[in-house]
Amino acid sequence: MTLEVLPSTGFPEVGAGDDLAALVVRHLPTLQDGDAVVVTSKVVSKAAGLVVRGPREDLLDAETDRVVAARGPLRIVRTHHGLVLAAAGVDASNVGTGESVPLPPDPDGDARAIRRALLDLTGARVAVVVSDTAGRAWRDGQTDIAIGVAGLRPLVSYDGRTDPHGNELHVTAPAVADEVASAADLVAGKLDGIPVVLVRGLPREVLTTDDGDGARRLVRPEDTDLFGLGALDAVRAAVRRDDPLGRGFPAPAADALETVLREASAGSTAAARVDGDTVHVRPASAEPDALVAAGVLAERLRVLAAAHRLALRVVVLT
User: Fold this and answer.
1) Domain co-membership, 35 together with 179
2) Distance separating alpha carbons of residues 280 and 294, to the nearest angstrom
């Protein structure tokens, strides 16, 4: 398989109301069935008239679903799309001085609309990817990812298939749409004014005749996210216990209660006994030190229960 990744040439500055599909046709090679057109989210937002004057911090609250981690002025947040990004993806680069631009509110919808318009203009059935730049947990640097997709399978699962050595695969699922977005970024760059890229030669198995599932398929559900909060932020959330939904924590495991009891009770002289959804904590004696130990155990139980998303009532018996 050979892939071609071709940048658009002479693409103009995009403004509110511009016809993106018409600009794509004008500044890309002739489109063919099976091509993938990668469009940066920034020009989608510009065409939609979303650019605002003012610092990006002014947009951050409106674009934030919840804060994942915060250190000083830096905020990593979950957006209303479900994406986890620094500053909610609000950007102040490649726009006028003093301006900022948020992500489009419905990038999958934008990808579908551009795809339909390109079909009307050219007769070619292409895939469309709306891309944005994102960091990666545990890795320095950024890469482009797909935040909107139409006509392309966002990921391909190899679950149940067998590799050449006879091993059955279980968790292998290449994020094809992200890979296409990253490939496009190799020729688009960040300073070259190339907001649209053509990727040609994708295997037929990753293309769809309809619009497909969209990039939302790539968003991990919160209940399965083992890293839904930053380390310090997770501790704070468990101590405060101020979010009854427990957002940012994974769903409780089957052995969560046993784990909480074991970890909280380690080294404690007090005893904990479960009665339904209540844990009774009994001090070893009436001595002051024993009463303090019981109080410590009770608070450890409450914090760990919050961290495991367990609805647990803790009562100290005196």
Assistant:
1) yes
2) 10
